[in-house]
Amino acid sequence: MTYHPKSDFMRVMMERGFLADCTDYQGLDAALIAGVVPGYIGFDATAKSLHVGSLIQIMTLRWLQRTGHKPITLMGGGTTKVGDPSFRAEERPLLTPAQIDDNIAGIKQVFAKYLSYDDSPTGALMLNNAEWLDDLNYLDFLRDIGRHFSVNRMLSFESVKSRLDREQSLSFLEFNYMILQAYDFLELNRRYGCLVQFGGSDQWGNIVNGIDLTRRVLDHEIYGLTTPLLTTSDGRKMGKTADGAVWLNAEMRSPYEFWQFWRNTTDADVGRFLKLYTELPLDECDRLGALAGAEINDAKIVLANAVTTLCHGPEAAAGAEATAREVFEKGGIGEDLPTLTVTPGDLPLSIVQALVQTGLAKSGKDAKRLIAENGARIDDAPLTDAGLMLDAGALSSPVKLSAGRKRHALAQLG
Predict the structure, then answer these.
(1) Strand (E) positions, 60-144?
(2) Residues 275, 397: one domain?
(3) Which pTM was predicted?
(4) Residue 387 to residue 39: CA distance in whole angstroms
(5) Residue 231: which residues within 8 A CB-CB, separation 6 or more?
(6) Are 126 and 117 spatial neighbours (Cβ–Cβ below 8 Å)?
(7) Between the CA atoms of 323, 325, 328 and 332, what dihedral angle is there, to the nearest 10 degrees?
(8) d(Cα 174, Cα 160) in Å, to the nearest integer?
(9) What is the CATH number of the domain that holds 259?
């Protein structure tokens, strides 16, 4: 569909590549022109941090606020107790209320970097759906809300259908999730005047459910807008690497490692990622994305610096770039490298365990394979002996360990 938006927010969504689909382009565009539009995204608290896969959603809310509207970050304190079954092969492990609260505290740290939470008309709101879900009366909920849902229609949604087609079990607990998410939208509209829900394109069915429910119960017109489910140009899921998820909290993924993830972006993705994950002007994103040969590496550094500045601050971005230059160009030891501090009581430490504990290898088996395939180095020299033991003498000054050409860490005596 070719639609020419009039509102700043819709124009940003379309020009920068955020838009996968919208329930009513013209209706939402008109609402955005008419006044301040509150819009929300729900985040279940399944871990202590969000990862890069959620960054497109966070940037959507940031642009909503930047263009004069009100972002709502909804923490799933209630829905996390159920678990979203969308496109999952198996049921999520159930978390305790204490684990959920702990995870929410970690996730809040991420949002504070991207959004301004204040009492102004466009100030962001941090809410928790446990506020209205925890005290629901089951019989009242069935009578007042459940009657608006067709099981036939729910079974037709791709997220559920794909699970059933593979003959994988879908518990009644999980089946209720889409009803609860729809009810969230209803409550946010009733309590806070929320007009739009954002989400990845896999959330389309859940979003449409909420719009239908709100129309039936409150007779209010509300909207849904989805973002594309991103994969890198080489087919990998966005935010996943060989050594795990790229977390947004510094204690789970250091700013240096975070910077390196973006610096290692595939050439073909640079222009697209600049538009989605930075606030650089569009023409600059296009110019940088079109660079070829060695010059594309300069564009990757711009990308890494801009994304790291938003997530961890300008000092962390500058420190990561300086460390990278020192490590790669001068062969030195950068201060920001992930560091393993070994106590004298842990000595001697095998080189295999050192690789595992620094995060350069997932397991002892992985470390031995790395050494056998000549992928490991110690102080920039090839590491060939998987039986090497590090003693107090070896660790009298920091030892630089490397896996491949781009991943490095330090081991030192504490």
Answers:
(1) 70-75, 125-128
(2) no
(3) 0.78
(4) 57
(5) 237, 238
(6) yes
(7) -60
(8) 10
(9) 1.10.240.10
The helix (H) or strand (E) run that includes residue 206 is helix 204-218
DSSP state of 194: -
Residues 192 and 258 in one domain: no
In contact, 410 and 401? CB cutoff 8 Å: yes
> CA dihedral defined by 405, 406, 412, 414, rounded to 10 degrees?
-160
Dihedral sign, Cα of residue 319, residue 320, residue 323, residue 329: negative
CA atoms within 13 A on the CB side of 258: 26
- Cα-to-chain-centroid distance, residue 397: 37
The answer to whether position 234 is within a domain reads: no
Q: Are residues 191 and 43 both part of a single domain?
A: yes
Q: Are both 80 and 172 inside the same structural domain? A: yes
pLDDT by residue (tens digit) across 60-109? 999 999 999 999 999 988 888 776 555 454 555 678 888 888 888 889 98
Average pLDDT, the chain: 87
pLDDT classification of 409: cutoffs 50, 70, 90: confident
Instruction: Look up residue 297 and give its amino acid.
Output: N
Residue 132 has a CB neighbour count (10 Å cut-off) of 18
Sequence-ordered list of residues with C-beta below 8 angstroms from that of 132, at least 6 positions apart, any chain: 78, 183, 187, 191
Are the C-beta atoms of residues 348 and 389 closer than 8 Å to each other?
yes
pLDDT single digits (tens) 201-239: 988 988 999 999 999 999 999 999 999 988 888 777 776
Give residue for tokens 């959004």.
115
Tokens of 168: 């994988």
H helical segments located in 222-358:
255-263, 270-277, 282-289, 296-312, 314-329, 351-357
Residue 371 sits in a domain whose CATH number is 3.10.290.10
Phi, psi for residue 350 in degrees, rounded to 5: -70, 150
Number of domain units in the chain:
3
Q: What is the CA radius of gyration of the chain?
A: 24
